């Protein structure tokens, strides 16, 4: 008789049919512990829900009925699970053999941390730093606004949100665990109230990690929990996508910073966009600053005018992690 799953995998899908089917198949093939898998489909129009049901008779597919965003999609997925541990996983990831077993085993052995992430690799095998980030501060935003974070890439001093040149290959406490691979106990998830649904896309994991730290959890990276993350693609350098990133950052400032610091932080974000506006991507971000600087929910109406044209496609799925703007600019300059 099979053991009941104690770990639930939650994936939010938006027009990523083939990637999500692969992600589910890999996590099933490469994990030894019993899993409960729930996929939330955010109103895809590529046949994702039907394809997932046809491919897996033991995966729960929840149709959201529309593009409700990543935070709300994750919350909906968790409500449809029963396991005592929750693992968020991106649809554009492939869990390597033993990755989920490793992060679960570490969490069971070291429950004092409470919030766990892993190591992500790009398809070419190089480190993708997006499994975790440093927290935004006035200094990090000043470095972005003045170009220091681009001039001194991966500098622990001038690009602090990148966490320096650390390859995510050692156990280390970090400020932010991103949603591409995140584990926490159901008890902690419920105590935190899940993801803040004021966030539509980007920034929700930074907010979740901040609230977790305030509750006494200690976000930590487990390097043996390694996944391949296909970040990028045709939309990764678009002005709209970068405006979404900025909207997520602005929402973090609006929801957690004091009024004076918030005004200064938004001004620094705008200054950084202006500094880079010679590129087409950042020219769009600068031109659309009124659309993103107030954060969500206002930014949602401006940046996502309709479900059909609202979200990233398969190359940049709903659950893509928020990246520091300094890091994102590296492909732009």
TrEMBL record:
SUPFAM superfamilies from the UniProt entry: Nucleotide-diphospho-sugar transferases
Q: Where is the Glycosyltransferase 2-like domain?
A: 9-135
Task: Report the domain of life of the source organism.
Answer: Bacteria
Where are the residues of the annotated region Disordered? Answer: 304-333
PANTHER family (alphabetical): RHAMNOSYLTRANSFERASE WBBL
Its name, as the record gives it, is Glycosyltransferase family 2 protein
């Amino acid at each position: 008789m099979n053991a009941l799953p104690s770990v639930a995998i939650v994936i939010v899908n938006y027009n990523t049919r083939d990637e999500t089917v692969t992600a589910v198949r890999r996590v099933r093939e490469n994990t030894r512990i019993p899993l409960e898998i729930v996929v939330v489909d955010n109103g895809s129009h590529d046949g994702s829900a039907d394809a997932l049901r046809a491919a897996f008779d033991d995966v729960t597919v929840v149709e959201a009925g529309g593009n409700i965003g990543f935070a709300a999609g994750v919350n909906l997925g968790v409500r449809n699970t029963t396991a005592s541990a929750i693992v968020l996983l991106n649809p554009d990831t492939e869990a390597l053999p033993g990755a989920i077993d490793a992060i679960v085993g570490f969490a069971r052995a070291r429950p004092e941390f409470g919030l766990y992430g892993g190591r992500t690799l790009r398809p070419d095998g190089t480190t993708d730093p997006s499994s975790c980030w440093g927290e935004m501060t006035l200094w990090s935003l000043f470095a972005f606004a003045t170009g220091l974070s681009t001039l001194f890439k991966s500098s622990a001093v001038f690009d602090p949100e990148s966490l320096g040149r650390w390859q995510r290959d050692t156990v280390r406490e970090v400020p932010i665990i991103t949603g591409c691979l995140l584990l926490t106990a159901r008890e902690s998830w419920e105590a935190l109230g899940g993801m803040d649904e004021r966030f539509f896309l980007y920034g929700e994991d930074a907010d979740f990690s901040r609230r977790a730290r305030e509750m006494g959890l200690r976000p930590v990276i487990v390097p043996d929990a390694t996944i391949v993350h296909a970040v990028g693609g045709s939309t990764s350098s678009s002005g709209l996508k970068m405006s979404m990133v900025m909207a997520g950052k602005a929402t973090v400032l609006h929801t957690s910073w004091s009024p004076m610091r918030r005004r200064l932080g938004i001004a620094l974000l705008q200054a950084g966009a202006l500094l880079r506006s010679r590129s087409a991507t950042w020219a769009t971000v600068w031109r659309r600053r009124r659309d993103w600087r107030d954060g969500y929910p206002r930014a949602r109406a401006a940046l996502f005018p309709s479900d059909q044209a609202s979200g990233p496609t398969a190359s940049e799925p709903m659950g893509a992690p928020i990246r520091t703007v300094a890091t994102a600019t590296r492909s732009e300059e």
